[in-house]
């Protein structure tokens, strides 16, 4: 017969009320708060939480949708002014739209970056390295939609088309380059975020683009490792390419027979000035190439990272919305002491200003903006 264990009566623990004056005194002391402790607890209870995630989430009160953004322009202002506005304020430390990151008053990018606080020297070097290879002069059409928020998108499209025909702007269509982010309406997949890709339109001033071609010509002719034949091919390819662009300011694509020499087409593809116009394998045989901007992938990667970050952040909340100050707080990151972690100055954004992340998503219809009694609010639209 197997042994069975049953606890002895002596092993059972029972709590009994004690009348010991010492025990009673110890319990009473624990309930007493010293004056300093009361003061500390009072300060803590009155403090606003430093992180948006700690804020009790309630649906934001919509005051109206008549929003005036910090960078908004009227229809009386030129599209070229809008481009300059974005480019002059795209980096947070030099943006005139806010003064969150006071830096040394200088035109030197290096001095401004190294005057930033709460960033290590390695982080500052990484910023300078990234920006050195960052393509200059690019903006997305969706950002322009937000700048002219009180006008419809057709106003921007017509202004862009006019600028292209006048030879002031160069437009590029990059296939499958922008994320399409949607929230499932299926009750069994509530809040699930899915991703796809769509074409994106980017713009640059024609003068900036031609300066890039000129720099590429000079670099090819100064390349001591290249043979005379290679330098000759580079010169003819880039010169013929620029001549074609001058004659066709609205051209988005070229065909294989646009250039007499197929080697020139191959050179332009290798240099990043032309790309295959489709990412679908069954269309690769079509002899059509999209005119492109070298290294624009670096720019689009950052824009896409910003849109994805924003959607994921808003999607965490019950009502898929946050105040702009809360978004900014998450963008930077804050310590429990209330100091900025400067996360936005690290990969993948390296100081890119939040205004243009919001502008891109707003122009794409991914989010909407509205006024509340305590500031601007931003909400996911659920657009595919």
UniProtKB/TrEMBL annotation:
A UniProt-annotated Pfam family: Stk19
InterPro entries registered for this protein in UniProt: STK19-like (IPR018865)
Signal sequence extent: none
Polar residues: bias regions: 7-21
Swiss-Prot/TrEMBL GO biological process terms: positive regulation of Ras protein signal transduction
Region (Disordered): 1-23
Family per similarity comment: Belongs to the STK19 family.
Name this protein carries in UniProt: Meiotically up-regulated gene 51 protein
Organism for this UniProt entry: Candida maltosa (strain Xu316) (Yeast)
């Amino acid at each position: 017969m197997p042994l069975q264990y049953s606890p002895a009566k002596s092993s059972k623990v029972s709590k009994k009320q004690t009348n010991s004056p010492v025990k009673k005194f110890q319990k009473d002391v624990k309930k007493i708060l010293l004056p300093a402790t009361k003061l500390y607890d009072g300060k803590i209870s009155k403090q606003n939480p430093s992180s948006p995630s700690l804020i009790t989430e309630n649906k934001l009160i919509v005051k109206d949708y008549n929003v005036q953004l910090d960078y908004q322009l009227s229809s009386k202002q030129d599209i070229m002014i809008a481009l300059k506005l974005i480019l002059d304020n795209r980096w947070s430390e030099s943006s005139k739209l806010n003064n969150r990151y006071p830096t040394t008053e200088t035109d030197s990018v290096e001095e401004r970056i190294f005057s930033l606080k709460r960033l290590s020297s390695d982080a500052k070097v990484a910023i300078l390295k990234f920006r050195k290879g960052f393509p200059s002069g690019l903006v997305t059409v969706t950002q322009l939609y937000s700048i002219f928020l009180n006008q419809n998108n057709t106003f921007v499209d017509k202004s862009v088309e006019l600028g292209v025909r006048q030879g002031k702007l160069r437009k590029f269509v990059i296939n499958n380059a922008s994320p399409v982010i949607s929230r499932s309406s299926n009750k069994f997949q509530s809040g699930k975020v899915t991703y796809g890709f769509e074409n994106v339109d980017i713009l640059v001033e024609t003068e900036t683009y031609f300066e890039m071609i000129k720099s590429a010509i000079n670099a090819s002719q100064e390349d001591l490792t290249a043979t005379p034949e290679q330098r000759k091919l580079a010169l003819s390819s880039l010169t013929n390419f620029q001549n074609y662009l001058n004659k066709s300011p609205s051209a988005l694509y070229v065909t294989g027979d646009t250039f007499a020499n197929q080697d020139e087409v191959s050179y332009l593809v290798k240099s990043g000035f032309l790309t295959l116009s489709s990412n679908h394998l069954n269309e690769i045989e079509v002899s059509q190439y999209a005119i492109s901007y070298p290294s624009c992938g670096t720019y689009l990667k950052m824009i896409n990272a910003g849109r994805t970050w924003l959607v994921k952040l808003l999607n965490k909340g019950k009502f898929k919305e946050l105040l702009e100050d809360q978004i900014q707080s998450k963008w930077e990151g804050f310590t429990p002491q209330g100091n900025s972690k400067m996360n936005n100055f690290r990969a993948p954004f390296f100081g890119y200003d939040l205004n243009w992340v919001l502008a891109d998503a707003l122009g794409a219809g991914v989010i909407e903006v509205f006024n509340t009694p305590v500031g601007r609010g931003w909400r996911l639209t659920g657009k595919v």
